[in-house]
Amino acid sequence: MSSFSQTNLRNQFFLAFMIPSVLCLILVVSVSFSMINQRNAELEGVETRIQLQANLMVERISGELSSLKSGLSLVREHASFLDLHKESDIQELITFTRTQVCPHNDLEGFFIVSADGSQLFSSYHANDRIENETRRQITEMHLTEENPFSLFSFFSNGSWHLLLSQSLFDKSGKLDAIVSLVTETESFLDLLSCEVVPGFKTAIIFNTLGETMAEKNAKASLNSDKYHTPRTIQDIPSFANSGILDLEETSINKSTKAMQYKGSYLILAKFDQFPFTLGCEVSEAQAMFSYDRTLSISMSILIIFIIIALVVIIILSRQILEKEQFQQRMMEELSSKVKQRTAELELLSTKDSLTGLANRRKIDSLISEQVQIHGNTAGTYSILIIDIDYFKIVNDTFGHQTGDEVLLHTVKILTGILGEKNTLARWGGDEFLALLPSATKENALSIAEKLLQSVYATPFSPKVRNTLSIGIAENIPGESSSNLIKRADTALYLAKTSGRNKAICG
């Protein structure tokens, strides 16, 4: 095998390996870019879902507080028709409060105090649950601030409580008593609802002073004191250090703040009707864990598939290279034989097997070329159709072998006179056709006369003396080859019928 062929095969092997490798690299880059864009879109979706969840929690808690506030309004209206200095009216108020407000599931209890701060009723089993200081502060708020409704949070027995109180006025409009509802604020933070978005870490409710009124932490146990002691929002590092407390209100609506800080999403959602704010912290890594795991598995499968594909490509490329080398050797060995055989076939397809002259197919092609060359121009060429007179008698008398020898003898004489410039072909049987390029009919007639004289003067044997009949035709501009041959054949027929051994122009 030539060095050029070996180099070509190596180049093919190199391309067969490099092209799939480049395509695989482009595929990996494209898929990676697409996955990065999808992950960024998923991150935005997670942040949106967290904000929506925070707003839903705020709406739910606001709904509960509004329900309690409405219940207190009903109690206030009912109390305006009672005399709370009477034990019977106090009992009636207690019954009304229980039926209208206490069915609330998250309500711990309620109590009623008089305008001077003395307790009229408490639904708690132990009255020390509501300390005297708490009752005093409530009374002062309703007396000095003249606020008919107030919210008051306090920390007791390891948990935060929210107290909603409503002033009760007598018929003259004078403060008669205060009814207060107490609920444990951590009941607002249903941990299950906080974990709707994976990665939940912390949920906090704090008031305008920054005091945390309720807190749920995913890592803290229910009995942990760490998350059941009073503290402010500033005590929580993620909220204190991120700067989210100083941000302008942005995002889903004007009451929501959102930002990313050290791998976490921080959300603040304000209550519309109450002086509270809900804060949520969600871990980005945990929120994206399922998506990232699926992404990693997909990328791993893709990379494994590409590695396997490249290994298969290398193996197949080597096999193809070896096969190509073997086939190349076989092709080189066969190529010379095919060329030799093709040359032989080409020769056979254009040569007469007996005389070695051009055959009918070849001379037809040469005449067609002349037609195309001259076309409608005035260029001139001529043809001769030559027939050996009485050749059938030679075959019948002396046999076909002698007839063949007579043909070869005649061909030798004809080619000697025509020369290389003109082409002699065996037209069929004992007929020959000579193409005379650039010859007029006068030139053709002169050549034909020489042919007649030479054949007559050079007999095959004393017993076999042949003569020729020749039809001559000069081309007419625009004439087809078939018509030219027809005119020469007609001239040959006239030469035969008018005595033979002569040449006639068509």
**Low-confidence residue ranges:** 221-227
Tell me the series of helices and strands, N- to C-terminal: HHEEHEEEHEEHEEEHHHEHHEEHEHE
Strand order of the largest sheet: 2-1-5-4-3
The percent of residues in helical segments reads 40-55%
Given the C-alpha coordinates, what overall shape results?
rod-shaped
* Termini gap: 61 Å
Number of helices: 12
Q: Which percent range describes the beta-strand content?
A: 15-25%
Q: Using DSSP, what is the number of strands?
A: 15
Give the class from helix and strand content and strand pairing.
alpha+beta
Which features characterize this protein?
506 residues; alpha+beta; five-stranded antiparallel sheet; 15 strands
